[in-house]
Amino acid sequence: DITPSTNRLEASGRARHDGPGMDTPILRLASERDAPALARIYAPSVIHTATSFETVPPGPAEMLARLRAVLSFTPWLVCERAGEVLGYAYASRHREREAYRWSIDASVYVDARHRRHGVATALYTSLFALVRLQGFCAVHAGITLPNPPSVALHESFGFRAVGIYAAVGFKLGAWHDVGWWQLALRDRAEQQARAQLRLAQHAR
Fold first, then answer.
1. Are 99 and 115 in contact (CB under 8 A)?
2. pTM for this prediction
3. Is-contact 137 195, C-beta < 8 A?
4. Residue 45 Cα distances to 48, 109, 138, angstroms
5. CB pairs under 8 A, 24+ apart, for 31-38?
6. For 7-66, what is each residue's pLDDT tens digit?
C-alpha cells in the first residue's frame, strides 16, 4: 500500500514510497508517453459508468492534448509501479473567466485492479501539496451521485459538500445528480489582502 506519510517529492519531480524493491510505487509528473495508459485507465468510467459524463472514451491522442493543456497550468500526476501506471490525478481550471483564477477542480482515476491500496490517497496528497504551493485558494470536485467511495475519499481530505446539480446529466438510460465538494487550500482573506496590496503598488 501507499501511505501519504511516506510520500516524498524528489528533486527529479518524483514522489516515492520509502522501502526496498523495484516494485515500489512512485509518484511523478505525467509525461507524453503516459497518454496510452491514461486513456486505458479512463475508458471504463466512460463506457460502463456515469462517473464521467463523456460517452465516447478519448484515445491516446486526445488524452495527450488534454495532458498538455493541463500541464501548462496545473500538475498532472501518475502513480507508477514497475513501469505500469496504476492511476492518475490532476487539477484543472474551475472555469475559464479571470475571476475564477484562484479556484481549480481535481480528478483522480485508478485502474480497477489497483483500487483500495492507497493509490488515490497518495495521488491526492501530493497533488494538493503542489497546488497549495502554486497559490490556489480552493479545489473542487464534482461527483456523480450516488458514489459513496468517492465522497468518502474527498471528505477524508476535508472537502465539504457545497451543492447539488439535480438531474443534470442523462447517461446509461437515467438522469444523474452531480454533487459538488470544496476544499479550502488557504485563507482567502489573506489572499485578498495580498491582491489589494499588489493593486495599490501598481497604481502608484
1. no
2. 0.83
3. no
4. 6, 9, 26
5. 32/64, 32/67, 32/68, 34/67, 34/78, 34/85, 34/88, 35/60, 35/61, 35/63, 35/64, 35/67, 36/60, 36/63, 37/78, 37/84, 37/85, 38/63, 38/67, 38/78, 38/85, 38/88
6. 433 333 444 444 445 688 999 999 999 999 999 999 999 999 999 999 999 999 999 999
